[in-house]
Fold:
Amino acid sequence: MSMPMSRSVVYLLVVLIVLSIVSIALIATIPRVPSVTTVTMPITIPTLSIVTVTAPGAPGATITVERTVTLERTVTVTAPAATPAPTVPPLAEWLASAAAPYKGATVKMVTESTPTGLFIRDVLAPEFEKITGIRAIVETVSWDEMFRKSISTVQAKAPDYDIFYVEQDIVAQYGYNGWLMPLDDFIANPKLTYPGYDINDIFILHEYIYEGKILAIPFESFLKIYVYRKDLFEKYGIKLPEVLTWDFVKKVAEFFGAGTREPGVYGWVAQAAYHPCLFYEMVESVWPTFGVQYWGITNGLEVTFNNTCGKKAFRTYVELLKYAPPGVTSYTWDEVGAAFTRGVVAQGLMYAEFFGTIFKENPAMIGKYGVAYPPIDPECYRAGYIGYFDMGAMGINPYSRNKEAAWLFIQWVTSKENVKRIMENINTVVRWSVLEELADKVDAKYGHGYFALVKKAIKERVFRGAPPFPFHLDISQQAYAPLHKAVTGETTPEAAVDEMAALVKKILAPWKEKLGVIPPYT
Structure:
């Protein structure tokens, strides 16, 4: 028996097939954009198929049967266009454009005559001027004169210098007195800050934040560490203990003596002059290793450095001087660096900034020095930091007439490109990415292992900057005088520490009344 299908149903199915094919064709004709995705999608199209079956009782009868067929089609689907990552122009190109409004201006900086300061003066400043048309004058002077020039300028509200060298330990006093212009607005301004600058890469930036404001940008940093003649230690079979102690240091000093074991080589060296350097050596480098930290001043402004351990530390310091070169009682940090440059001391505490000078002025010393954490006194030291993390930064005079140009110069000096050059040439670094990239290379070049020690020290947090004292200069410019009496033998180390304590208490009295307490140290 025949079972014919309605013609209307057949027409409907045909229409559906045609519409599906047209849709596919229309999709295929849509113009493509660069960002497309091609996928295979199953499209189900109902169609008809006539088959012949044998119906019961009616052999050979034809029956119309509806079937569903699945067709595979390739469909082009347009994806949303991806937003391209912003292109960061080369630093020199960006600087030339950003500096256009300030072309012809002059930026003047006063800085300590450190190896980094000289590199900025002789190399980076001329390059900046060539790129931007902004003249950059870098005046390099002694540490003492640098402070005098900076402070007298800002106290007079004068524009004589646009950029000051800002040592880490003084930033709180500068901030308290309003002697630096906060840089936060400049940093947030895309017209004035290079898009690839990455300020968070500067791993010591937090040391220059005062009351939530960034006051300066670091361009050099260095630990004050134990440095020793690796070649001489190997020659005489001297091995560093796992934990370096002052007892070990004394034995080594006695072994080398005053130039007796190795001709012309002394067993110890120190910055023991009648100068603030003597004060800094004690409060930043020696006392912490005897457990007297943060200058021996509590956050309630009480004096504690004249305790038993504080006095033991200064006696140890004075006793070691007999193994130092002649004239050590007039040595500042510069003379200590010079002694290591000449190779005339077997061991000592040294600001690592001098590695740049040592290897430049006396290449014969490359590979002859090793480094370690400062020694501790196990009876007094229990925990906390053991050494000083010194830093130099660039801050803007609030009375400068060329603040924008000054900020551009600061970025040039502290850019990743130039921090790399400074690390390779001067042995100092302020960016973590550069430290990670170049540490092994520079350590291998000079053979000292210093940057491996820096990475370790940062992770272990055993070196610190000075406490945030707004009365820093009040103390540092006076408190060394009593100590020097013991250095020259005029009095005992214990009596000198007591005299210093009385002086510091007197200095702190008006500050204690004014401030009460200062924020706890971190």
User: Anything to note?
Assistant: The chain has three domains: 7-78, 91-220+392-437, 223-390+464-515.
